[in-house]
Each structure stands twice: as structure tokens, then as C-alpha cells.
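The pair is quoted verbatim underneath.

:::
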Amino acid sequence: MLKLFLWLKYVRRRRIMLLSVVAVAVSVALLIAVASLFTGFIAAFEHSAVEAIGDIVMRAPDGVRFEKYPQFIQRLEQSNLVEAATASLTAEGLLRIEGGNVRPVAIWGIEPQSSARVIGLKDALICQGKAAGEPSFAVPDAPQETGGFVGIAVLTKPDEQTDQYDKEAVCKEMLNKRVVLMAGTMELDAKGERIPHRSTIPFRIVDIVFAGTYLLDSSLVYVPLDVLQKELYPRETSPVATSINIKLKPGTDPDRAVEQIRALWRTFATNELNWGPMAVGLTTIRTSRQMQRLYIAEFEKQKHVLEVTFGVISFSVVVLVFCIFHMMVKLKQKDIAIVKSCGAANSSVIGLFVGFGVSIGVAGSGLGAALGYAITRNINEIEGWISILFGLKLWRSSVYMFSHIPNQVDWNSALLFAALAMAAATVGALLPAVAAARTRPVEVLRHE
């Protein structure tokens, strides 16, 4: 009971103890926020890749195109791994919007109905995304004309202050507008020499794409696959594609699926297309995560560097707790001597001060976890208030790729940092606790 009385007495009267709790809380909150923001950014980067290209992408070798792809897609969808697959034809080109307004773009020839089953195309469409039915390139009141989708950042810029797009204004100005795509390919002439072939594709903008990922919104233009093929490869009489995008069934391991799809493709290309072993081997089949592996590795490296940096800074918590408890031991020699003279063992005295350290660790970790959660979940609102109050825009989609800051809490890191904070507070109290246990009651009380 005496130890409990002293414990409550010190907690109530030593306001400096609150400083330790606050220090632990701030350290834990800072580490949780940093880890969560980086983890959320990496997860958003991976998710954006899946939404843009699917779980797995097959790409034909340079200068080669997939033939008979509808039959291969049918075989993929008949397997127990693939939920849906679609083909695409890609090229680089220029988009002439009006006058001298010309933008470099990446051109994707797609089949919108099948693409919507594989990638997040429908959700990214500003107009058709809210409408019932599948997305379509059809031009209202002009079925004979070609329609296309254009990324919102190709057509306009976000507001300098808010970093938000005026979707209504850009739709009002650009929908149904006639624009022109200019692309080029290399074709073989009668002598077998490669000569450039220029293609021009006029179309009307029937919808605007807002994927929320700046790299996509600022570069992509979608047009019908058959139209793009006709302009780029007029000599091709059967459907061709340069990529096949695949969506796996839920719960399927992408790495295992890659190996099975590669075996299926090897059989199809050899038997149906008469491809040689070299052409089959040059066909790349990779998951979206593998395609983004270099970027993800750099993000994770930066995350670990920041965690180590802030962890070193947070080591001051151990020093602070040590100093506070060392001061308590020096100032409360009489209390310690009385406790020991009443028969308390050295282990009991150590337990008293270590208990203080654990209490500080638990209180600080709990408060820090709550604070870190609040900061992470409301990071976009906090960033907005900073922008309003100080005129400082911390997050721009053109720099950080995404229109909003990822705000999901990384609970694994949160639990780890909370546990480390409790351990640090305990370690900080351990040495003063040992010093308190070595107090000699006779020498202390003799001078009182």
C-alpha cells in the first residue's frame, strides 16, 4: 500500500511527468503518421496501376503484334484464374485541340465494354461513370463519327490555389468538341526498308477521364481499337493488338497466375500463331506490381530512411525519461529510504520506478496512437486548412501524382511504434530505478 501511495503521489504532483507522456505521444504520433502516409502512398500507387492496366499485362515484342487475340482471350477467361481480359493497341502521338494547342499524348486503342471489366475505366469517366450501362465511344446524334475519351489534365489545368479541376467547366467546353490525333508508325516498303507512316485520326470528345492519378490524366487518350488499327496498320486485315490486360479472380496469387498464363500463351503462340521459341520468349507477362517494382522499391527505401531519422530523433524520449527519473531519485531519497526501512526489498523499489516508466509508456503510446490516427485520417483537411491560413499548398497532384493524400492508417507500424515507445520509456526508467534500489536508508535518514 505504501508503494501505491507513493506512486499516486508522484503522478499527481510531478507535472514534469506529463512532459514525458507528451514527448512519448508526439514521437509515436509522428512515426505513425509518416509510416501511414508512405504506406498509403505505395498502396495507392499499386492500386492506380491495377486500375489503369489490370492485374497482369502481356506485351508483344517490339515490332510484333498479337494476332487472333480474341481466341486467346476466350481461352484465358475459360481458365480458373482469369475473371476478364481485354486487348489494347498503343502508340505515341500528338493531340491537336485547337489552333496552336497541341499536346503530346499516349494513345490507347481499346474496346470500352471489355476494358471496363478489366480496368477502372467506367469509374474514371466524368459523364458515363454516373450513367447506367457500359461505357461507349458512340457520338450522340452522329453515329458515323468516331468518339474518344481524353484525360482531364490534357485539356485543362487545376486551380493554382485549390489544386482542383473545374469538371463542370471543362465538360461544358470540351464535350462533343472535334479534335485531331496525329500518330506515326514504321512500315516496310516493297524493298523491305522501314519507312515512316503518318496517321491522322479526327474524333469527337464524348467523355473526359479523371482517374485521380496525374500521370494518367495528363497523358492518355482512348479511341476505338479498330479505328486506331485501321489508321496505324492499314495492311492488317485481322484484329491485332500490342497488349492484353488481364483481371484475375479474387483470391488468385498473381505470381502463380503469371506462370500458368505464360504456359498457356506458349502453347497458343506455338500452335495457333506459328511463333518461334524466341518470339514466344520475348513476350513479357508481368503483374502490375512487377511493372512498378523500381518505383515501389524507391518509395519503400525513402520510407525506411524517414522512419530511421525520426526514430533517432525520438530516442530523446529515453534520455528525457532517464533525466526525469534520475532527478526524482535524487530529490526523493527520504521517501525511498522510508520505504526500504519498512522492509521493502530492492526489487520492490526497482518495480516502483519501472512501473512509473511503463505507465508513462502506456499513456504516451495510447495518446500518440490516437493523435497519429487523427492526423492521418484528417490529413487532407489539415492540408486544406494550412493552404487557407498560410497560402501554402503542400500537396499538388502534378508533383505527387494523386489528387488526394492517402489517409489510411498503417496499423502494423502503429502497433510496432507503440510497443517500442513503451519499451523506450521502460528502459529510460530502469537505470534510475537501479540507483534508487541501491539507496542506503541509514545514511539518508541520518542527515534528515
User: Anything to note?
Assistant: The chain has a mean pLDDT of 80. The two ends are 24 Å apart (CA to CA).
